[in-house]
User: Fold this.
Amino acid sequence: MTDQAINTGAGRPAVSPQAVVDAARPTGVRQIDYRPDAFNPAPSRRFYFLMMTPSIVLLAGISIYPFIWLIYMSLHTVGEAGQPDVWNDFKNFTRFATDGKFQNGWLLLIKYSAMCMVLEVGLGVLLAVILNRSKLEKFLVTIILMPMMMAPIIAGLVWLFLYNGAFGWYHWLLQSIGILGPTSVLGDSDIAMFGLVAVDVWQWTPLITLITLAGLKRVPQDQLEANMVDGAGPLRNFISVALPNIYPFLLIAVLLRFMDNFRFIDAILILTGGGPADATNMLPVYLFDVSFQYFKLGRGAAVALTLLLVTIVLGMVLVKLFEDPRRKIKVHGREEG
Assistant:
């Protein structure tokens, strides 16, 4: 029997098996758009908004209201000699031009933050590279993170004993090697700032290490191996392959430490209180003194508002400067994000 049609006794042509198969084969793909009814219907957007309303109200109450009250106090004379709140024609802000402690506080704060950022990022990245994929990685990471788990006030008290001029171990060590004179670390106006930087670096470098270590775990190993096959050494391999991949993680770490340094006050009050001779009287310490030592809440609010605005602006500048260059790709002469 062939594939061609043959005549039957009834005069009707018979259909070959191949023709039956061809007729049964579908000519196109049919998509069945069938979705079974859900047991529970999908909630509307209004439902989600109602579920978030308590959290939104709570966050507004603890952030927006104090912010508005801060602006109000910065524009009035508040808390001075028991006088009622009086509008002072921006006097709290205009006096900054002649306030030497305010200006010196900014300079010290920038100096302190710059030293902390450079040391913490450099040491944090170095430690992360050393710990990455080492045999004792989990154990060493646990040990390194211990200073970060300590409260800043407790850390300040620990270092206060280490710097003590009578029995402090660091005081004895620095005097033994000839770096420190007869005065203590915190009593010398030339090196008191470096003593505070050492405390911050000791406590918060582990945070940079932890964030960088998380970024190194996501570096593609095939890229590293391919670069090594091309003859790249460990340093070049890190700069050309690992560093671009951990760029977003470093940005997060830098922003976190930058904002923390600009509002850091706990250990400073414990160690120096702004001294000696205003050598460590940074802007947050000056803000604390004006608001809670002299109880001039209007001036303190103006200082706090200025510090907040500058922090926001500098944070935006940092994000722009450290923006990942891989996000901008030139296509036919124009940049696309």
The longest strand covers residues 329-331. The radius of gyration is 33 Å. Residues 99-336 form a domain with the MetI-like fold fold (CATH 1.10.3720.10).
